[in-house]
Amino acid sequence: MRSQKITFPGSQGELAARLDLPVGKPRGYALFAHCFTCSKDILAASRIAREMTAMGLGVLRFDFTGLGMSEGEFASTNFSSNVDDLLTAAAHMRETLAAPKILVGHSLGGAAVLAAAGDIPEVQAVATIAAPFDPAHVSHHFADKVAEIEQAGEAEVTLAGRPFRVRRQFLDDIRSQDQASRVANLKKPLAIFHSPIDNLVGIDNAGEIFRHAKHPKSFISLDKADHLLTRAKDAAYVARTLVAWARAYVDGLDTPALAGPFAPSLDHVVVAEAAPGRLTQVVDAAGHRLLADEPEAMGGDNAGPSPYDLLLAGLGACTTLTVRMYAERKGWPLTRASVRLHHEKIHAQDCADCETRSGKVDLIRRQVALEGDLSDEQRAKLMEIADKCPVHKTLHSEVKVETEEAR
After folding, report:
1. Which end of the chain, N or C, is surrounded by fewer C-beta atoms within 10 Å?
2. pLDDT digit string (tens) for 97-132?
3. Cα 360 to chain center, whole Å?
4. Helix %, strand %, coil % of the chain (to 5)
């Protein structure tokens, strides 16, 4: 994941944001809204962003006004200002990157994305995580101070162990929200993530959101997760499930269909050009579908591995598979094998043990990492076995490629 710190103008000054990007060209962008009094850097937000970028999405997460690194006074903010901040962030993305296709909101941020979604026409899917149905639900966190706020106009409250000043305008604002109508008129696919044991925002809130929403809508139980998704595996589950769900609704997330005269086959690899990319290809290997492309520097869209990347991947997978099977057959304590590979062309005269003496030759550098309580002798043998994987042998043997036009 590549991460960039950015800022953009908000209603009370600069809003601080973090743009998380995948290694290649993003297949789309998501906008993430954090929980009440949290920040963009809360573990749940960063972990979900990391998982989403691993699946090809760019994610913008930002601090609401008066929180985190964003400017402004928290006491002057309210739910409506949070919604305005979301719209401002979406506008910034539209102008500098691309408008978000997915809105994701955690806790009160989930309520905010439900309120903002109707004003961001490019959004094709919305997801909430542990979100309250009614924004006024947040007042439960400082119920003992509500009377003082109403009488004195403001009071200091403690939220998540930190002091905040809350004014009467905040209470008036959250009480005035017609969230039921917003959810009912969302007109966008909705995924609702909630834990049945959430003790801050009860599961009944998810039920109300689901009841008011129109189809397509989905509820995904987070089983044993807590409200803040403090377990890494819970955040990862949300991100992976969210992207898998969104593929049905969001343009560009799903792998293109395999077009052309060749049908998928168990004993053939089929490759065909895939629109709209200039050089993007869709690959079907025994029913496993993926994209291939060239980097942007080579005129491609970097939508998938390059042909040489796929070649290295084949050699790397063959290496670890061969090492694993040999270690198991010997009963050796290999816990994990990993391979890193790099391809380049070098001058033949720089290669001391190459038969070719002129021009250039292909050089593949392979590093094998062997984990486990292995002896020196076992490690040496496994490194020897790595050179005997079938793909390695193929690359070192005479290979003949027959090409004919399909009719």
Report:
1. C
2. 999 999 999 999 999 999 999 999 999 999 999 999
3. 40
4. 35, 25, 40
**pLDDT at residue number 350:** 67
Closest to 64 measured CA to CA, from 46, 42, 81, 45: 81
Question: Which residue in the block uniquely carries the two structure tokens 């925002």?
Answer: 201
Q: What angle do CA 222, 223, 227 make, to 5 degrees?
A: 60
Dump strand ranges (E) for 320-359. Answer: 334-347
DSSP letters, 298-330, are GTS---S--HHHHHHHHHHHHHHHHHHHHHHHH
Residue-by-residue DSSP string for 100-153: -SEEEEETHHHHHHHHHGGG-TT--EEEEES--SSGGGGGGGGGGGHHHHHHHS
pLDDT interval class at 162 (50, 70, 90):
confident
Q: How far apart are CA 35 and CA 15, in angstroms?
A: 16
**What pLDDT, on the 0 to 100 scale, is given for residue 357?**
66
Report whether 63 contacts 5 (CB < 8 A).
Answer: no
- Are the CB atoms for 68 and 16 separated by under 8 Å? yes
d(CA 86, CA 117): 9
Dump pLDDT digits (tens) for 214-266. 999 999 999 999 999 999 999 999 999 999 999 999 988 877 778 889 888 88
Q: And the tokens for 144?
A: 């003992």
169 CB neighbour count, 10 Å cutoff = 17
